[in-house]
## 1
Amino acid sequence: MNLINYGEKFFDELEIHVLRRREIGAKAELNQISSSSSSDLSMAVIRGVKDSRVGISVVDTDNEERIKEGIETAYKLSRINEKDENWPGFPEKQNYMGKSVNAYEPEDADHYVNTLTLSLKDISEKKRDAMVVGAEMGTVWYKSRLMNSNGIDVEQSDFLSYYVLVMMARYGEKVTPSIFDMDVQKKGELNTERVVDSCLKKLELAKDVKKADSGEGKVIFEPFALAEILQFSLYPSFNGEREVKGTSILSGKIGEKVMSDKVTIEDDPFHEESLSKIIADDEGVATRRNTIIEKGVFKGFLWDHYWAKIHGENSTGNGVRSFRTGSMGIGPHNMVFKEGNRKLEDMIGEIDRGYLVSSFQGAHSSNPDTGSISAVANPAFIIEDGEITGSTVFMVSGNIYDLLNNVEEISDELRPVYMMGRGLYPHVLFDKVKIAPVSR
Amino acid sequence: MVVVLMDIHEAVKYGEKLGGDYVEIRYEEINRSNIELKDGVFHSLAERKSKGYAVRVLSRGAWGFATTNKDLKRAVEDACNLAISSSRAVRDRIELAEIPANKDRVKSKMKIKPQDVDYEDKAKHVRRLEKLLKSKYYVKSSQVRYEDAHGKKILVTNEGTEIEWDINYILQYIWITGKDGNERGAARNMIGNVDKGWELFEEEKFSPEHVADELHRKLYNQMHGIAVRRGEFPIVAGPIIVGIIAHEALGHLAEADLTINSPFRDLIGKQIAPEFVSMSDRIVEGGFGNNMYDDEGTPIKDVHIIKDGILNEIMLNREYAKKWDMEPNGHARAEDYSYPPIIRMRNTVFEKGDHSLEEMVEDIKFGYYLVDFRGGQAELNSSFQVGVQEGYVIENGEIGEPIKDTSISGIAIETLKNIEAVGKDFDIEYGICGKGQSAFVSSGGPHMKIMKSITVGGEK
């Protein structure tokens, strides 16, 4: 029996979102393979509305009978809920930009064990004192189907492969920070050698720990560090719900210049290198490329269906569901911080004294309502006379908008970032960054 | 439940037959209530029913792990094959420290369990909280999230361990955003408990009125606080900040899988702090990390990480206990059936000393009194960061104006040496720690004075 038809016995309208996720991979720690793992999990979220009262149920299954039980649970909860006088209904049928169906062709565990083993061998041959704190290699695949009583019925499936490497070394009593890099691929082989070489190079540079200056200085954020900071201090301001409530620092600023004209930020699931090539968001609304910042000018907020309708707009296809609670929120799919035209080597080469930051500690303690940041650059490296001469740890403080007004250079190459939301980021050189030393 | 147990026992035997030297199956069947009230609208009034298996197999010195909410037999086959596949590449075989085969039923200590409270009453509680939060003109937006759970967890191993838990917890998270003129701010509060049920909200400290008052003070002070000076300053940290330093700066380094690659590795048995400093990961009254057994079935023991200034013990699972030639102490924890257990903290606290807050503040010419946190993070080189959402200036021995939000950082092994005084009070807070997977934790301690080695982030 059609589940939507079944649900319509209870609700005026409803939505069913079924997700299946499979993953297989291998892990290493302490310089050797430690485990292999697989997962095969399904979930379904039912969101139903009766008399403008919403009820939600989440079940860890794609079994039809249990989804029906979930429909009944959601109905009971909707009876308890209060009327949402602003309920705009579910989205109507959409025109999608093509199909997003990629068949899953998993390798078996031996493939990941063997590839990871070769990579570990590569590490030990190149640097005997390097310690692999943790490494993970695998493929994750998902398939989702979103249906609603307005006729939306969209299926998507996709997969990606990843290699994450975390290393450290001891030099006498000194312990380096954990050095991290990763490769993510939607097609083709993982570039394990690039990941290994990148980590080993930084590990060597981390040998000499120096004290950072106190004051203001030039700092290059690597792609991951940039994504970390923006994720917690800037992106929440793009959320349309905050615009409705007047709590975004960007409220009332559409069309205004809010940061350096060197900065362009788009949410673009269709970018050639996108790690999230989805055609529909979690409400079934067609996704699109949304330009949020164009040459420093704020162009507009991201919306899901609910908040867009309340604000008299259309969804930008940015409805994102929490499968933990079933509730909807607004979020990007594939943030692209547009590349510039400088070679990273040239950017470093022109700095007399400055810093290169690989990652931040505490980016998540930024204040999304004020844009205030106070995070620790670690691992970070000192640049002296155009060369990296050692590692350091320092605090970066200030406000994200001040920081983004002081963009000096942007590299010409984008790197995929998978762990701080999905996106593509360049290296960015900021000037007048407020810093205070932490390592002595 | 009898049928499930039989299935699990059969599956464990099947795992042995397929070559598992150690076979462990964890089954969970948990119902969660989720309520999310944002500015007058319940965006989530939801129930989540989850049911699934975690199968972990050690074969020929390597792990295989499979998780499923579909087919247990298939998951056992997968886990065995995965372990065998891994074992072909293993140089040093993984071994487990021995534990007795424990058979037990862990009952909940809750007086009023979440499932005995009507959804309407839960929604009413959340609505009341929102009303109190919105009672101040400067609160522009509020988000109240409530979650509870009830259900069963069963652990069966081929060594004879069979433990069944009556799982219950309560979790409440609030975020408010404020605007007063041109000043903006935000404040958070979190409450979590596994031992106290709905009766928790009858305690003054957790009552909606008290929670709202605390949040109003934090938000108002943040909006009207002064900008912080950037650099190294003396600090007096309140119990919540002390707790998060215990967790981030030291606790993570004392998790054996991280200890092995941290500066702590070579410091066990050595003096690393003044002798009046002691720190533990232990069972605490009301601790969010409390339990009787870990997810390998090891009884939980208090771990006295720093005892009289000496780095004394670390937190272990069975694998790392064997590596370190120590006794397992019950710190293998898994977020849920979709994860294997890894070494985690529970309730990490500094122990009490004998100073009053006034004594700690009186000789500080300029510094900061730091009260509450927003996030924190540790690193292997013992660098730590703690976000601060409530703090005050200390000037000429007195606590003065509030400050805007900031963060502090230091190198833990240096900071420890610079602890000057430990207070005679004690309190804890509640959090969710992320280390690839989530774990409910508490952290806390008394007030503490640190004169050097703390860098404060600031705009000035």
Note: The two ends of chain B are 62 Å apart (CA to CA).
## 2
Amino acid sequence: MARSDTAPGRGRRPPGGAATLTVLRLGFLALLILLWWLASANVPRGIIPSPAATTMAAAQLWSEGRLQTALGQSLAVYGTGLLAAIAVGIPLGALMGAVRIFGRTVDLFVFALAATPRVAFIPLIILLLGLGIEAKAVIVFLGAVMPIILNTYAGVLARDADLIEMARSTGASPVRIAIHIVLPGALPFLVVGLRLGATIGLINTVVAELYTAVTGLGGLLALYGNTFRMAEYFVIVLALAMIGVIVTEGLRLIEARLSRWQTAERP
Amino acid sequence: MIPAHVLLSGVSRGFGTAKAPTLALSQVSLAVARGEVVVLLGPSGCGKTTLLRLVAGLIRPDAGGVTVDGQPPQPGDGTAMVFQSFRLIPWKTARDNVAFALPRLGRAEARERAEHYLSLVGLSRFAKSWPAQLSGGMRQRLALARALAAEPTLLLMDEPFASLDAQSRELMQIELMRLMAARPATVLFVTHSVDEALILADRIVLMSPRPGRIAEEIAVPFPRPRWNHDTRALPDYALLRRHLWERLRDMVLNDPASDFHGRG
């Protein structure tokens, strides 16, 4: 059945407006900071730094330029690995879905590789590529590429046969069908793959920085954690959380923009 | 003799696996003249849709030959198809849905053509709406605009109005006849409905199920244009209607795969 038959205007809007949601989210953030402050005041030996101490540590790290340097190193690793994963994962997954015999031949091995903890390959990668940014980017790539391949594959397999037949009846070429019908139809799957890939990629960025040459945010995390400089340590944790939020929210905005047709109201 | 626009000679086509094949069409021969409106009428399982897909060039026959203008059919080459479930692209606007069906035109030209045909079916205001924002009748008019925009010489319609309510359906039949009068094309139209067949057809091809074959061909004598008077008031209408309905009824009651088998 073509998806054009779904009920119109059934949006996925939250109840209330966007403004209400923003207020609720800020309120929840305030609650989290309050809990953090309570914990910092009550956990002994200063293991948890207060919000104020953390803010001061952040200002200090920023003015020394250490935060920026580490952030730049981490983003270079993360960006390279993630972009490579997107550039390889989407075409490969699409090819697996489009050429059925190819997909059936290799999907078992891709599933097997996806189930293997990719950190297991780190010693091998270090032997092959050393300890520099190449090795780190490959570790990020290996983590991020799997969900992107598998979700693109699933999305292309779930293509709408009726729409493709309609497209063929107009004389559309296979390339035109792929671009206008199959890939846009796979978009919801693709976004899930990208979100998972982005999350795993960020985890692997930190893992790579801990296991290879110690640099970037992961390096600072180890440094401050091992030397019990908890305020600085918290700054790094929060910086990593913010990268994660910015990337996944960015993907969500792109998805919302590309799927306006699902949520649009009747004129 | 004028060569036929569409010619099927001894066409058979099966489906299913090698272990459990089903014959959708068996030894079907049919010639359709240029500009003729032929309605394929028959119960479920009589291979009407298979016949359309063969003529569209979407599938090939197992035996026999299909030609359009003397050539094996190529999808989109002078042919356009309208489907029962509309098959609109949900992430494209109305205008871009129509423009998509014009792969041979440049982008700007396709959009211009799309806007012209949207206005022809009364959807200009909705050019930038998505299909989900349109009512059932509007979606069907959009699907029709998409097919007409290709300016086909052969229009294939697979139960295009079956999912519309009774009023929309009658209005769409009239709209189709008006549009076809303005720009004539050969039409092959598939339906379950005896009334729809009698209102639209120059000739009705009655098909019987399992395997699909042609049971009878009936020329429809009503004068055109048919939208300015009620064809159903003509005395021949009732006679033809009763004849067709009795044939269909017998087919359904004698079809072991039908829900009504043996209930006559």
Note: DSSP finds eleven helices and no strands in chain A.
